[in-house]
């Protein structure tokens, strides 16, 4: 393929309900979409992080600069544009996995469309639909939390994840167990809110039979997570600390994680996400597809990943209605607790022009006409 032009569209979409985590409260999905146009096909992607570097070091305006000034010039210089050539072309730029993922995914979408192949087929997805879990934010009170969980279970979600932080951990978990029983698939996510000094406190979660505790300690501190795992029986799952397949192999080897959260954006795109999946599967370690409150443009490709054979736990890939009154794509709707894996060419979805126009706050050309 030959690159013709690349456009960046800032979008702002209100969340149906504020989403509070240990690192902040989100009320709007505020990010950008990339639109890549080649001589053969067009592709779309979504930048996964937020305007502020609270979840990870990357953020919206920084990623825009990185893509425009450092990634695109290298990609545009390729004699032939293919997804396979992107990784090597971008390798000298350190880090910035989420920015790289946005560019790679838009090119991959275009390349797959040119070949009339779905991302699900390309990755080797083995399921037509995947079970949907839901990530429930920190609330002001336990009754409020129980109402939310009840509503999600009534909608059909098959697994509940509670966001936790110091002061909001054992009590909400106990309340959810008492109300909804021991059989409910339940897990927690601390987003790095604890330290190893909290090990005895975190051990109190062991009695609740959780599927996992996600990223309890500092980002990238695999050693501390391994020491914690020796002191608790709840399986440790890593999110923020895993940036590629090599990290994942190291974390598994040192028993710093017994479950892997795969966020394609966090590991630089779907090619590396597939490798992370393969490392976990080769070790017999369960994996699942995480989420970043994506619009349909980001969710569609995540569903293809969630349908890989090694993604044996329900993901955070929830229905459009869990996030937005109106998604930028045709909405993803829960049926019997599952979402259908898109099977059209590329990521299988495109933005709805009317909605896109309404949610776009600015657009600029990053390359070409
Ligand atoms: O840690 O998994 C996380 C959302 C934004 C940033 C980080 C995380 C999350 C979620 C929500 O937990 C997942 C989703 O529903 O997309
Ligand atoms: Mg997480």
Describe the structure.
The chain folds into 2 domains: 3-116 and 352-367, Enolase-like, N-terminal domain (Enolase-like, domain 1); 120-340, TIM Barrel (Alpha-Beta Barrel), CATH 3.20.20. The strands form 3 sheets. It has a 7-stranded parallel beta sheet. Strands 3-2-1-13 form a 4-stranded antiparallel beta sheet. It is an alpha/beta fold and 369 residues long. Helix 1 crosses helix 3 (97-114). The protein has 12 helices and 13 strands. The two termini are 17 Å apart. Bound molecules: 2-succinylbenzoate and magnesium ion. Magnesium ion (MG) is lined by residues 189, 191, 214-215, 239, 261, 290.
- Mean pLDDT, to the nearest integer, reads 98
What does the radius of gyration come to?
20 Å
* Elements, N to C (H/E): EEEHHHHEEHEHEHEHEHEHEHEHE
How many distinct domains? 2
Shape: globular
Main β sheet profile: 7 strands, parallel
Tally of DSSP helical segments: 12
- Going by CATH, what is the homologous superfamily of the largest domain? Enolase-like C-terminal domain
Q: Quick one: how many beta strands?
A: 13
């Amino acid at each position: 393929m030959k690159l013709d032009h690349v456009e960046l569209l800032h979008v702002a979409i209100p969340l149906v309900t504020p989403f509070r985590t240990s690192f902040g409260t989100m009320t709007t999905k505020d990010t950008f979409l990339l639109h890549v146009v080649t001589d053969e096909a067009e592709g779309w992607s979504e930048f996964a992080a937020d305007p502020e570097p609270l979840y990870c070091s990357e953020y919206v305006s920084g990623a825009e600069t990185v893509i425009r000034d450092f990634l695109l010039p290298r990609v545009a210089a390729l004699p032939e544009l293919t997804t396979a050539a992107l990784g090597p072309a971008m390798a000298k730029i350190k880090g910035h996995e989420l920015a790289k993922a946005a560019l790679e995914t838009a090119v991959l979408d275009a390349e797959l469309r040119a070949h009339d192949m779905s991302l699900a087929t390309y990755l080797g997805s083995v399921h037509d639909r995947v079970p949907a879990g839901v990530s429930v934010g920190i609330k002001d009170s336990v009754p409020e939390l129980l109402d939310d969980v009840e509503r999600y279970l009534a909608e059909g979600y098959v697994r509940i994840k509670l966001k936790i932080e110091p002061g909001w951990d054992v009590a909400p978990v106990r309340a959810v167990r008492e109300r909804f029983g021991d059989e409910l698939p339940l897990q927690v996510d601390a987003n790095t809110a604890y330290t190893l000094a909290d090990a005895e406190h975190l051990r109190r979660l062991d009695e609740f039979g959780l599927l996992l505790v996600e990223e309890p300690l500092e980002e990238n501190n695999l050693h501390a997570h391994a020491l914690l795992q020796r002191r608790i029986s709840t399986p440790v799952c890593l999110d923020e600390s895993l940036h590629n397949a090599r990290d994942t192999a190291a974390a598994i080897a040192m028993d710093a994680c017994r479950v892997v959260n795969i966020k394609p954006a966090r590991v630089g795109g779907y090619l590396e996400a597939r490798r992370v999946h393969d490392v976990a599967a080769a070790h017999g370690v369960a994996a699942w597809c995480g989420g970043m409150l994506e619009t349909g443009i980001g969710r569609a490709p995540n569903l293809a990943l969630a349908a890989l054979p090694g993604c044996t736990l329900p993901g955070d890939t929830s229905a459009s209605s869990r996030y937005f009154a109106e998604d930028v794509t045709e909405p993803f709707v829960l049926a019997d607790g599952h979402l259908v894996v898109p099977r059209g060419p590329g990521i299988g979805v495109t933005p709805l022009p009317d909605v896109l126009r309404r949610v776009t706050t600015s657009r600029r050309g990053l390359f070409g006409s």
